[in-house]
Amino acid sequence: MTKEEIIKFMNENLTCYLATAENNQPRVRAMMAYRADEKGIIFSTGNTKDLYRQIKNNPLVEVCFFNAQSNTQVRVKGKAVIKEDIELKKEIVNNRPFLKPVVEKMGYDILIVFGVVDCVANVWTFETNLSPKEYINLS
Q: Where does the Pyridoxamine 5'-phosphate oxidase N-terminal domain lie (predicted)?
């Protein structure tokens, strides 16, 4: 896959798995990315969540996007960076109505937006299972 095909794949498969570390222990959870482009992958979480504390303490993360129909997996490693962008927060809340009640009650400060930047991806399929890994810079 090319860089452009990987970015398209991520945007078509926004439900993914995000791995962090806490006290030298891996932590993984299903997430819904907001979008992906050459600048990185955008996510949101709450400021009371373990995820927020984990990326503040260790910003190195890995994200795995998967499509069951094609049995394609894209793993992306990068660095989580907090985005202090109120307009982006408003855009995310507007496009994800389930966040509106929380923001209305708690304010926009409850919402943490972060980007995974300096992304390097590798693609896995059954056909390439035994091939050497190829890493593709997405920046």
A: 3-93
User: What does pTM read for this prediction?
Assistant: 0.94
Spatial contact of 79 and 119, defined as CB atoms under 8 Å apart = no
Give the pLDDT of residue 38.
95
Q: What is the largest CA-CA distance in the chain?
A: 51
Question: Where do the H-state alpha helices sit in 3-106?
Answer: 3-12, 50-57, 86-95, 100-106
Question: How many domains does the structure of the chain reveal?
Answer: 1
Contact 123, 6 (CB under 8 A): yes
User: Residue 12's domain spans which residues?
Assistant: 3-137
Q: How far, in Å, are 39, 50, 55, 75, 132 from residue 120 at the CA level?
A: 12, 25, 18, 8, 15
CATH number at residue 12: 2.30.110.10
